[in-house]
């Protein structure tokens, strides 16, 4: 799994990483998929101090998080990881079920899930 996301300290770096992770090779392709002009999108990927830098706000972080399938809070503030959100309803069901397991049993449940996954492969 790509761990380069951990090196992205600034919002613009996280956004650029997320775009590439989502297989949008160019900012133009990402802009088109988000329904915006390339210049508008690329301003979010510019470093502070650059010409026409636009800081990421929560609305744009939510929009990009959904499109790039990463956590919008990670995009915005860098907390957690890009993968802190479930990407589909099945993952959400597992997370919800795990929340009902007493904390002292969660490691055993996680181990059982890993065994199930490896046997299904």
Structure description:
Helix content is 57%, strand content 0%. It is built from seven helices and no strands. Helix 1 (11-21) runs parallel beside helix 4 and helix 2 packs across helix 3 (38-44). It is elongated and about 50 Å long.
What topology emerges from the helices and strands here?
Blueprint: H1 11-21, H2 27-34, H3 38-44, H4 58-68, H5 72-77, H6 89-99, H7 106-120
Helix pairs in contact: 1-4, 2-3
Notable features of this structure?
121 residues, mainly alpha, elongated
Give the terminus-to-terminus CA distance: 17 Å
H and E order: HHHHHHH
Mean pLDDT: 89
Q: Which class do the helix and strand fractions yield?
A: mainly alpha
Largest sheet: none
Question: How much helix is in the residues?
Answer: 55-70%
Count, helices: 7
Alpha-carbon Rg, integer: 17 Å
Q: Segments where pLDDT lies below 50 for 5+ residues? A: none
The tally of strands reads: 0
Global shape:
elongated
Q: Estimate what percentage of residues fall within beta strands.
A: under 5%
